[in-house]
Design a protein that fits this description.
Length: 354
């Protein structure tokens, strides 16, 4: 249970929380929330700091503890200031509460409660271990930072990232269907980096039949870099996937449905918490129409195709006032980046009407 911080936090703790929120914004959205942490000594001096950088990497608290060790500082008797209630479960990494207890931290000040049922209960566990624990400091800012992640957790569906590569006039393929490659090597390498962050990558059966993709992720931009598959390679749609399709093999899943919500429910039941949707256009539009896209990476190439397949057909927008205006998202780095000669936009949907 959270406490109202009020005078129960010091000036140093309040300053540390503002810095932790700034650190949190440097992380990568996806299967985990954006979290930052600052470890303080008894006199308020900073011993270490850290933030969660993405799925499979250390959480913010262990990152701050590791930073303190690198600096030659002892965490015993210190205060951990963190933007989210420390987790109390084992996933890709161990429970943060155990790391804090084992390190001898005597006090934890956190912003927002963890709404993820599997990870919640960290504050209670810390108090049972004799650690002073105060919640609620800058809670609104932490909740705003993670509102899309929170919405996906409460809806019991994966966090959805949509990625598109298109021409200046919004085409993903020329009139004859050719699409490889609209964007250059730098943009494609960045796309592989984003693939590697997701639990699953999803395309439609049309993309499989047209392009026969492997849906693997290369860790380096060089063509010789070894591919590594995400947790699942998912094909959505009613059309059968050919037996010799390159996407088949260990980690392959065919969801024989066109229902986006049903597909996300099945993926969630399988433990997928972050899915990257790569298309084609009809699949991308289906996720947009369903209102479940939490972030959008759009790679725009300086080429004009004229005729050809549009990026997002059939969205049901009849007039300009019905259009959804997305917002630039600078979590994890600049919202606009250049991968010569292309430009990448990192976008988030506007907040729902009040």
């Amino acid at each position: 249970m959270s406490a109202t911080p009020g005078s129960s936090t010091s000036t140093a703790e309040r300053a540390a929380m503002l810095h932790a929120l700034d650190l949190a914004g440097r992380g990568v959205r996806g299967a985990n929330p954006l979290v930052g942490a600052v470890l303080l000594a008894a006199d308020g001096a900073v011993l270490g700091e850290g933030h969660h950088r993405g799925a499979g990497t250390p959480h913010a608290e262990p990152s701050a503890l590791a930073d303190a060790r690198r600096r030659g500082n002892d965490a015993r008797g210190g205060t951990m200031v963190v933007t989210l209630e420390p987790c109390n479960h084992t996933g890709r990494t161990g429970p943060c509460v155990d790391a804090l207890i084992d390190a001898g931290v005597k006090r934890v000040v956190y912003a927002a409660d963890d709404v993820n049922g599997a990870a919640a209960g960290g504050a209670r566990r810390l108090r049972e271990a004799g650690v002073d624990c105060v919640g609620g400091l800058e809670a609104a800012r932490s909740q705003h930072l993670n509102q899309r992640w929170t919405a996906s957790v409460l809806a019991r569906r994966p966090f959805v990232t949509l990625k598109s590569a298109q021409s200046l006039d919004g085409r993903v393929a020329a009139r004859d269907g050719s699409s490889q490659w609209i964007t250059g090597a730098g943009a494609r390498a960045d796309g592989h980096r984003i693939r590697a962050l997701a639990d699953a990558v999803l395309v439609g059966t049309g993309t499989v039949l047209a392009d026969d993709p492997r849906l693997t992720a290369r860790s380096e931009p060089a063509p010789s870099a070894p591919p590594s598959a995400p947790g699942l390679r998912v094909v959505l749609g009613l059309t059968p996937v050919p037996d010799d399709a390159l996407v088949r093999g260990e980690g392959f899943l065919h969801l024989a449905t066109r229902d986006v919500h049903a597909a996300l429910g099945e993926l969630h039941a399988l433990g997928v918490r972050h899915v990257l949707v790569e298309g084609g256009p009809r699949v991308a539009s289906a996720f947009l129409r369903a209102g479940v896209v939490d972030e959008l990476f759009s790679y725009v190439a300086p080429v004009i195709l004229g005729d050809g397949a549009p990026s997002f057909p059939d969205l049901g927008v009849g007039t300009l006032t019905e259009a959804v205006r997305w917002a630039l998202d600078d979590a994890g780095g600049p919202a606009v980046r250049q991968f010569h000669p292309d430009v990448r936009l990192h976008l988030g949907p506007p907040p729902p009407p009040a």
